[in-house]
Design brief:
It is a single chain. By secondary structure, this protein is mainly α. It has one domain. It contains eight helices and no strands. It has helices spanning about 5-25, 35-90, 95-115, 130-140, 145-170, 180-200, 205-225, 240-250.
Length: about 250
Amino acid sequence: MTPNSTGLLVFGCVFGAALLAMRLRAALPQHHLSADTKDTVKLAVGLVATMTALVLGLLIASAKGSYDTARSEMTQMAARIVFLDRILVNYGPEAVESREQLRRLTESIVDHLWPDTRSKPAELDPGASKGEALYDAIQKLSPQNDEQRWLKSQALGTAVELGQMRWLLFEQSDSSISTPFLVVVVCWLAIIFFSFGLFAPSNSTVFAALLVAALSVSGAIFLILELDQPFGGLIQISSQPMVTAINHLGH
């Protein structure tokens, strides 16, 4: 499911639980709505609310951490691409083919991670890019002096680092949010909202307050799922570092 559909489902569950409780309140015997009952329910729901707040905070922190890690890795990759191009420039005109392969690799990464059409998902599989061709082109260089031998060694090492970073991004692309974990949190939220509706008076102010609260918590779940997909959705990582790297290639 997409973050949008999941967020709507969560909103329906929690707000529906509140509305259901408001409807069931009329069918409850009066002694079930006594002050002592309300106090006991408040204590129980307070415990659930505390656990839910802690878990939601952990989920947001985990998703934000994954997002920041992916963004940092993309920035480092862009910097290494420009650095590799500078190495090849210093090597000499013999490295023109390697520089062309580097440009093709960078353009391929941008095309796969940020496709022109939003309906097409990001492709993180390094096998779909041209990393091997770049490594082979650098390997074919024939150094004529110690400086060129050192530059070739540095270029090969940087190319290997780029390949490792691409595979690392691919391996980290799986969701870090456990579905059963998320289901449990939604159930806790439904319990909390059910308790809200059970003792709340039926008026427009209460209805509006519950509506805003349901939108807020479903928005939190939506935010968590969006951050967990750094190369898709509304909160995706910017392609600007890679575009800037492409603009520096060839100069």
